[in-house]
Amino acid sequence: MRRLGPLLAAAVVLAGCAGVPSASAPQAIGTVERPAPANLPKPTPGMDPDVLLREFLKATADPANRHLAARQFLTRSASDAWDDAGSALLLDHVVFVETHSTERVSVTMRADKLGSLSDMGVFETAEGQLPDPGPIELVKTPGGWRIDKLPNGVFLDWQQFQATYKRNTLYFSDPTGKTVVPDPRYVAVSDRDQLATELVSKLIAGPRPEMAKSVHNMLIPPVRLRGPVTRADGGKSGVGRGYGGARIDLELLTVADPRSRQLVAAQIIWTLARADIKGPYVIRADGASLDERFADGWNTTDVAATDPGVAEGAAAGVHALIGGRVVALDGQRSDPVPGAFGRTTDQSSATLSRNGHQVASVVTLRPGAPDMASSLWIGDLGGEATEAADGHTLSRPTWSLDDAVWVVADGSTVLRAIQETASGQPARLPVDSAAVSSRFPGVIAELQLSRDGTRAAMVINGQVICASVEQTQGGQFALAYPRRLGFGLGSSVVSLSWRTDEDIAVSRNDAEHPVSYVNIDGVNSDAPSANLQQPVGVIAANPSTVYVADPRGVMQLSISGAEGVQGWLDVPAFMAGGAMPVMPG
User: Fold this and answer.
1) HEC profile for 267-294?
2) Could you give the CA distance from residue 168 to residue 183 in angstroms, rounded to a whole number?
3) Which pLDDT score, from 0 to 100, does residue 555 have?
4) Neighbours of 179 (CB within 10 A)
5) How many Cβ atoms are within 10 Å of 242's Cβ, its own excluded?
């Protein structure tokens, strides 16, 4: 390839390893006054110490009134001393070892640690044994055994967590204002008519800390709710059900320009719509309509441009690399695309831009040799290309919403390739990845940005590592708050691709589970395996389908039959050894 054209632009299944719930409403742990859920246990005089402790762990699932339901299992002095603030640890396979005397029982606790739940309702998976939390003591009282001493913090029974907490997603604006970004929360909810109020209150409270510098919240203080969210006609029951819609009254809203008000509406509407709280959404600010055009209510179609479920480049279709060339699917055959990307025969990876109009590809010379050399080329699909970066090795490219292309050079240096505004020439800018390398040392085999550009998923030592993408005050970028996702995947991951902004598809060197999914909470689940051969390689996905390379060519995950059974089918035009799927990403 030669510099013959312009450098491109500036630059589930939620079943999981432990069955995490998949729908609901956020509220901070321990802060909301409301009735306790009916399914929570209560202490009875005849409970043995072991049973009482297990029922106590179940009762901690209700955070209301400073864990009042759980405090019923404590003596007054223990309740006064117990600090239930902060994150809760989710436990399974709990074992109590008891030492008895006549009036007192001393207990040590062992358990598997499955995750944590922050006081904002942010859930993250974990693995391993619970570190010794310290002794628990029970005393006999006139009402039966009660806990008289316990460690600070909240320990939560996993099964009860599943029964009590539900998952919902808040949405914040991405930095470019083009779309909205998911921020899942887990909370205990009892009254469905309070759900919308809780969700909007959480939007006003802001994103999880690790996303604070990656997203924009258009509902920042001093904005607040004037009162509970009601039906569109002001009624307090049936909010967002049937044709009642929802009315949101804000006050002290500081944004004034039409674009910002549109993003205010987008945050609220997508958060409520994804919670099955139906419109129309009557949004008022300081006594007037947020936008007079929608005085009678907004619908999701009015904010469709920011729809978090839309893949902008889906119309471009699937492409592939065959024989080092980018080819397009044409019925039952494939043809090289016009221009540089269809001519060159030594491309080792490629990705279409988010809108499907451009390509970024890596050309590798003398692969596997000591003097192997790789270069990044960017240009229009069907046009010519410009070199933008080089290295001994370069990872598969990935595109951000600002049309920059990200790659990893030599397994460790994260780069952004952009077009300089002044000169129009390509520039390669380093991304600060020190937080990743210090916590997860090793070669970054892949890096793929989420569609909204606020998260980066990486393969390091066969594990999935996710980091927040932050822009610094100087206009540079950094990867922050790295954490491991999908402990159940072990160190088997080969390649990854974002299906949605909440869910990642991964290919693995595991013959039983060659393709799996992991969401941004860290929960992993397995895709079908039938008709795939090892080793599987590059994976590419969007909300509607998944493609993966196996030794025969490109395979597609398809749904067939009345039961909607999923299975892998070959893509006839792409059945060639070494073929790799190419999609927007």
Assistant:
1) HHHHHHHCCCCCCCEEEEECCEECCHHH
2) 8
3) 97
4) 24
5) 8
Q: How confident is the model at residue 18, as a pLDDT?
A: 35
Strands 358-365 and 347-352: antiparallel
Beta bridge partners of 172: 181
Q: List, in order, residues 6 or more apart from 98 with CB less than 8 Å away.
A: 49, 50, 105, 106, 107
Report the relative pairing of strands 398-399 and 385-391 from DSSP bridges: unpaired
Q: In sequence order, what E strands does 158-234 have?
A: 165-173, 180-188, 224-225
Distances (CA, A) of 539 to 340, 391, 565: 24, 23, 21
Distance from C-alpha of 276 to C-alpha of 269, rounded to nearest angstrom: 11
Give the model confidence (pLDDT) of 309-324 as tens digits: 888 888 888 999 999 9
Is the pLDDT assigned to residue 254 strictly greater than 70?
A: yes
Q: pLDDT-derived band of residue 361, with 50, 70 and 90 as boundaries? A: very high
Q: How far apart are the first and last CA of the chain?
A: 22
SS3 call for 158: helix
Query: What token pair was written down for 476?
Result: 């540079």
Q: How many angstroms separate the CA atoms of 14 and 426, rounded?
A: 41
Phi, psi of 500 (to 5 degrees): -135, -175
Read off the tokens for 511: 């013959």
Q: Take residue 159 and report the two structure tokens written for it.
A: 């099964």
Q: What is the largest CA-CA distance in the chain?
A: 88
